[in-house]
# Entry
Amino acid sequence: MNSGAAMSDMPSFSTRISPQQQNALWQLVQTIFQVDLTAWTRLHLNGVHLGYLNPHWRAHLRQDWPLPLLETADSIDLQHADKLALADALQNMAQQWHRLGLLSGWRNEPFDVRNPAGQTLFALERAAFRPLGLASRAVHINGLVHTAAGWRFWIARRSPFKAVDPNKLDNLVGGGIASGESVHTAMLREGFEEAGLSEAVLTPLQSQSVQQSLRAVSRGLHREWLHIFDAVLPEDVLPQNQDGEVAEFMQLTLEEVVAAMLDKRFMNDALLAMLDMFERLNLLDAALPLAQWLRQGRGVDVLVSA
# Structure
């Protein structure tokens, strides 16, 4: 089986995850990914809905925004005829918040801000996306390998020195899509940086699913489209981290992965990406709520207004 295997060629398992475990996983994802967006302030730019604000960031935006805005009870509309002027004002405001110690996680890495049709409007520092509830994009690669003992999943453990989720378990590869980057280019870059995988291994891969990760976090709203890839690696291809962000890679059985999920040892987005794969591999009961939620959550990579 080659590394670019289509879903029809992907592995089959003799057993499913037990109904009890599926229901426990369903309870877990509800605590992570359920957000009542009616309680958030809708953020518009020139009338186009792009993000969401909690009360903390709404107050800071009202105080620090240098250009005209139109405010209602449940929305704020940032207005300027020149969208590049809007972009500069947002970037400068985010830098001000960072200098004042209000905005952590600054990386000097821009992400694309896109309209509801998926068209790029401008680039903005990624640290500002959560405070403003903007939708970002990421790639995730689920890794599998067939060993003499049966199928195993390649799982990464994050570096203990990571600022976010140190030592948490991750799928094989996961990372954000930078400004101007295509999904495929980001997958190639992250696949090498995080796991040392060659273009020969990665190039045949195709996105198998897109899920939106939506969850309230300490810095605002995490709202990210996950482009999910599945890679069946040959036994002689061993992941090797290149950027210092992964402490180790390990091969785990299905039972071990599920146990780690229920023990809350996985990063949230990696959990979602792997559960999506479980559903596509028929490891979940289609009639149970978890599988139904995963199927309903699949979409296209646009900024869906809620």
